Amino acid sequence: MKPVSGGWSLRRRVITLLTIVGVLLIGLATAEAAMAARNRTQIDAILNQTGPLRVQSQELLNAVLDQETAVRGYAVSGDPADLGPYQAGLDQEKATIAAMRGLLDDYPQIGQELRVVEETAEQWRESVAEPVIATTEQDGTRAGQALVTEQARQRFDEVRSAVGDLQEEILAAREKSAANVRNSSNLLVLLLIIAALVVVVAGAVLLLSLDRMVIRPLTGLATQVREVAEGDYQHRIATVGPPEFIRLGDDVDAMRQKIASDLAEVREARERIEWVNSQLQKQAEELTRSNRDLEQFAYVASHDLQEPLRKVASFCQLLQRRYAGQLDERADQYIAFAVDGAQRMQRLINDLLAFSRIGRLTTGFVDVDLNKVMGDVAGQTEAARQYADAELTWTELPVIRGEEPLLTNLLANLVSNSIKFRRPDAPAKVHISARLLGAEWEISCQDNGIGIEPEFADKIFVIFQRLHSKDAYPGTGIGLAIVKKIVEYHGGRVWVDTDVPEGTAIRFTLPARPQDVEAAAAADPAEQPQPATAEGTTPADEASSALPEHSAGADQPDRADGPPESGRTGDMRETVG
């Protein structure tokens, strides 16, 4: 494809071509308008001048014939009534001549012939008609008929001949006007044909120009772009054609170079990322193996430490019971320290053992009624509630897919935590509620205890993290870590709501069963709340106020069904804090 010669831009070329075509079409339109006006004038002349003149010339001839016939009849009969057509013909002649003169502004030759007719008719009347009428009136019909001679007929033939010349002149003028109409019509058609040819030629020129200046350069550019798109990023894009296309090709080539440079960088980065990923994968595998070994170690260590620790604790307690008061006060204190340390170590080992079991030993997910679970929790925490004079209540809770021992351990830890961190000046109150948010149940454990500062809201779920000394609040600092692990094992999340007016509100989510979500959507699809997040979640008091409330106070029968079976996941009769 050869470069297009010239430095004109595509817009300039198109505008120049359209300007030339426009000027030609405007000129042709002006000529056509002038020719159409001339044609209309000529047609008007035929319809409104020469046509009526032909009719009026015939009427003039009839008027003259009526006069001649009336004169001859009067000469024969002598009856004055026979002169009526003569007078009517004379009046008709004058009226017709007056009407014809109004149409003769553009036809002076016809006006001259009309004057000849008028003079000839007047001469005929003076030399023939008036004498015949006068003679007949005075001398009778015989004398009148004597004046109607061959010479009188010749004089009338002159009048008829003059009218004939007038009609021929009118016919000639009409034929001339008709010829002018035909000529102007032919010229108008010719101008229209020329305009059509101009449009056709301009369209052909425009089409060829577009093919040469637009389509071919664009096709070539598209071909080169496809080659680049197919992976040949080193192919240089060279464009020919108008300056706009050359600039477009340069821009596309600059984009190609930028893409090629970016792709080179991306390839290098991908190679680095692949190397880093391989290293991370190795580290992840090593970390997984290490975690598995650590879990196994924690499980084995917990089991292996149980027996010697139990023996130490047992003999320390024997020393305390047998020799209490027999030694000095310092010895009793040392023995008490040893017993307390052994017991706390035993609780810590039990908690670590429970923590390591979560997710390792599974019984499979089943439908778990949390109302029944709360009955078990009430039984497990009865002694602590009676000691602290605490009140445990809950609204109607849903059925969840999960492991019942773990869910029991989860709620028992939350309730025990709320009872343990109660205010000394008010009876402890713990309330469990639930509400459906989208495809999740949000379950809340709210109390009126000492509360948690917002800056410590995330730290309380870290294993062995304590906000108070063990003397103020006993415990191993692993209870909420167990809560977090159980919730995440069931596919939910847990957080502390710091916007409650008093006490502590710990909320966690658990996936809802599909039938519960469908039932809620069918019941009231317009008012289903959106899933809540840990930030800015409000209490579920309004959502749970209409549900029946259950209590685990002194008047409520214990709903616990006994301890879980030994060896099951999360088997913890005593709660940890």
- Oligomeric organization of the protein chains: single chain
| Structural class label | alpha+beta
Q: How many beta-strand runs?
A: 8
* Gross geometry: elongated
Distance between the termini: 85 Å
Which residue ranges are poorly predicted, with pLDDT under 50 across at least 5 consecutive positions?
1-6, 527-547, 554-577
What is the string of helix and strand elements?
Answer: HHHHHHHEHHEEHEEHEEHHE
* Number of alpha- plus pi-helical segments: 13
Return the average pLDDT rounded to an integer. 77
DSSP strand content: 5-15%
Instruction: Supply Rg.
Output: 63 Å
Output the strand order for the largest sheet.
6-7-5-4-2-8
Structural features, described:
With 577 residues, the chain is an alpha+beta fold. The chain is 65% helix and 8% strand. The strands form 2 sheets. A 6-stranded mixed sheet has the order 6-7-5-4-2-8. Strands 1-3 form a two-stranded antiparallel ribbon. Strand 6 and strand 7 (505-511) form a beta hairpin. 29% of the residues are buried.
